[in-house]
Amino acid sequence: MLIELTDQPIHVAAVLDAVQADGAGAVNSFIGTIRNRSTGRRVVRLHYEAYDQMAVHQLRKVAEQAMERWPMLQKVAVVHRKGTLEIGDVAVVVAVSTPHRAESFAACQYIIDTLKEVVPIWKKEEYEDGTVWVAAHP
Amino acid sequence: MKLSIALFGITREIVGQPQLELTVPEGQSVQQLLAGLQQTYPALGELRSLAVAVNNEYAQPDAPLHERDEIALIPPVSGG
């Protein structure tokens, strides 16, 4: 299991390599990237902040939950970026390997969906005329 | 007892510092801590949600806090 929070660019191929397993017939991945628009406003860049220690702990728990739910999971890798990211940069990579493809889609989606709900990482969108912490207010 | 509370994201900006040192009654609960903080910093009450983490886990509202706990405020997360 590869779990990492980094302020350096994520090498997607290295994350995929980390889930390579002889028992795997499928590798599935999700790559989250920085988009140039948000709720109709032009986004210039994003600033990610994390509660490092808890974020890594919670990421590990999410991966462990996935392995309990899909016992056929061979390997799991989650790498999340922090710091300032520009448009097109990779913010997160989730990769899983399983014997067959159906479970690889399900497990990969579970991990990214749960990550977005529980892992203490925050992003602030920077526009040409200000900044907003995403989802902070109703 | 003395508590040290780590602040991140919008909570850090609302409070204006990355860490708060508070003296509270022994056995104060998560809920009581939040109520006190929201009274001092009303903008905390305007957030979509505000959780408390104790030793890297989300804490229940009635959980008692201890002096050596690692405590943090967790505003709505937005990773990914």
Question: What labels describe this entry?
Answer:
heterodimer, A: alpha+beta, Aldehyde Oxidoreductase, domain 3, four-stranded mixed β-sheet, 3 helices, 31% helix, 41% strand, elongated, B: 80 residues, alpha+beta, Ubiquitin-like (UB roll), 5 strands, 25% strand
Q: Mind describing the biggest β-sheet of chain A?
A: 5 strands, antiparallel
Which strand order does the major sheet of chain B show? 2-1-5-3-4
Name the CATH superfamily assignment of chain B.
Beta-grasp domain
Q: The biggest beta sheet of chain B, please?
A: 5 strands, mixed
- The tally of domains of chain A stands at 1
Shape of chain A: elongated
Q: For the residues shown, what is the average pLDDT of chain A?
A: 97
Strand tally of chain B is: 5
Strand content of chain A is: 35-45%
Structural class, from secondary structure content of chain B? Answer: alpha+beta
